[in-house]
Design a protein that fits this description.
With about 240 residues, this protein is an alpha/beta fold. The protein has helices at about 10-15, 25-35, 55-65, 80-90, 115-125, 140-145, 145-150, 160-165, 170-185, 200-205, 220-225, 230-240, and strands at about 5, 40, 70-75, 90-95, 130-135, 155, 190-195, 210-215.
Length: about 240
């Protein structure tokens, strides 16, 4: 069964716009868990424009007594970021190749060009007992390079899939994701996915077998404004439970 991990960055962004702890990131995450969510994701950026380092530590403390819920921290593997991850020791760390001022993640790793850095960082995560994942485009050839750096999982970057959902190129694009996932499976690499997945396109994407986790934030928060968070989480859990 696929795990739904909710990215709470947008809750932090909304809070930061008013300068007080409302909405509370920890409190909202607790609400999600009470509704049945089994994963919480954060992507703290250097400028702390949404999730902050303080949030990371506070969420870690809250989740310590909830072993059934996975904590996933995403980010570029700077020295400060990896230090924080090793202190917090989440269930998973997803490495993304973002520049410091990047608006949002928009491409996956080129592993051969970053092999030395990734090998070093992934070794540190492994020694610290943190499961690793690499943000990747749906490219079977690039997936083949994952074994060179020994990441535990990949996270398929799904914006292209979302952009072509229900369009004339849907099947061609979908097959690229299926091929990348198939290659990962052949190599014994776990498969996550995320970016612009939503209630409309997730069922189609999960026709790909063995997706272990989907990380969804922006769309889920917007849908919650429209339909209510209880109803939205109910619908997402029904989709992942059926996968």
């Amino acid at each position: 069964m696929t795990v739904l991990s909710v990215n709470v960055n947008k809750i932090a962004l909304l809070r930061n716009s008013r300068g007080r702890d409302f909405p509370c990131v920890v409190g909202f995450s607790e609400q999600l868990i009470d509704l049945g969510v089994k994963g919480i994701t954060v992507h703290p950026r250097p400028d702390e424009r949404h999730v902050t380092r303080r949030d990371v530590y506070a969420l870690s403390e809250m989740l310590r007594d909830k072993p059934q819920v996975e904590f996933n921290i995403e980010g570029y593997p700077s020295e400060d970021f990896i230090k924080m991850v090793l202190e917090v020791c989440p269930d998973q760390c997803t490495l993304v190749p973002d520049s410091p001022g990047q608006l949002t993640s928009d491409h996956g790793w080129n592993i051969p060009e970053n092999q030395f850095v990734l090998q070093q960082v992934l070794s540190e995560l492994r020694e610290g007992g943190v499961r690793s994942s690499l943000f990747l485009d749906p490219d079977p050839e690039m997936v083949g390079h994952v074994t060179r750096v020994a990441a535990d999982r990949i996270e398929l970057y799904t914006e292209n899939f979302a952009n072509h959902h229900a369009g004339p190129q849907q099947e061609a694009v979908f097959e690229r994701y299926r091929a990348a996932a198939q290659r990962a499976g052949q190599l014994g690499i776990g498969i996550n996915a995320g970016h612009d997945l939503d209630l409309q396109n997730l069922t189609k994407f999960l026709q790909i077998p063995n997706i272990l986790e989907v990380s969804i934030g922006h769309a889920l928060i917007v849908e919650s404004l429209q339909l209510g968070v209880t109803e939205v989480i109910k619908r997402y859990l029904a989709i992942v439970d059926a996968s």
